[in-house]
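Q: Hi! Curious about what Amidinotransferase looks like structurally. Here's the sequence.
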Amino acid sequence: MSAQAPSAVILVRAERFVPNPATAADNAFQTEVPPDQTDEQTSAAALAEMDAVAERLREAGVRVHVFADEDHTRPDSVFPNNWLSTHAGGNVAVYPMYASNRRHERRSDVLEMLKSSYRVQTIVDYSGLEPDGIFLEGTGAMVLDHVSRVAYTAVSHRADTHVLERFCTDFGYEPMAFDAVDAAGVPVYHTNVIACIGTDVAMIALEMIPDEVRREAVRERLSVNGRRVVELTEEQVREFAGNAVELCGRTPEGRRRYIMVMSSRARRSLRADQVAAIEESCEIVDVDIPTIELAGGSVRCMIAGVHLDRRPPGVVPGRTPAVEAIDEDPHTLDGRDVAGDDGPVGA
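A: Let's find out. The predicted structure is below.
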């Protein structure tokens, strides 16, 4: 199995969804809800899209953990990849978030599920850096190459290089930081809107890295082990073509299959040659999520991959895993909602 493509994911089924006004200023991908659409209609449409993503992934043979969220004060909770990442060897990271109304998206029930269902050794919590104005928004801020152990990061106020260095030291990655801007010179707010790394293919908008030397260094580092680099245009990035993720599923017969999951909007933006390059190594699976994309994120933002070994069914952990707290006790994380394993609560 590829270290890059997890076979299990975490999704959050948020009953209340609206584009977050606290992130609109620096998220150039965020758009307003149509004026004739009520908040209730927006939430209902987004909920249907969340369920469609979960169902599509299950059909592809991916193990899906869905957590219900009934809290109406967490407009972006559908994007858990910004506060959580998991890593081979039983390691979990919890991240500092830029928008104050996103910080209570962190949930102890998610961490407890990981500890009970998977082999977790260490939880490293960086969220205590928030009062110092230092942020690193998980696998939104970083696009991780789990094979070559590189953390590709577009520098912004949501991706501080100091905490990036700390993460890389703690988790054994090489930092690869660079500036990335759009045609108007606006910094890219999250790396995962311009880049996606799979096992044998990577999609990235290299044209949005203005420094030519750094651009070529990123290209070379991505392709050094034979990975094919598919270059995206800024126009395709605006259609969320970069916000995809490779997962490992199963066929109905139980055979392993690698899939590249993206939105239908993203899929439509790709040229035939780009599709052919991606499908040399994995099958494209697309889902239509136009309401969720109003918030400035797409399928990749919705998925927190589980890169951990599963515990055998029925085995209860013998002890609480070691916890390393950095500037904050991870047990203070909010966890008021009830987790649903492999389906919404009450389903």
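A: A fun detail: The chain has one domain: 8-340.
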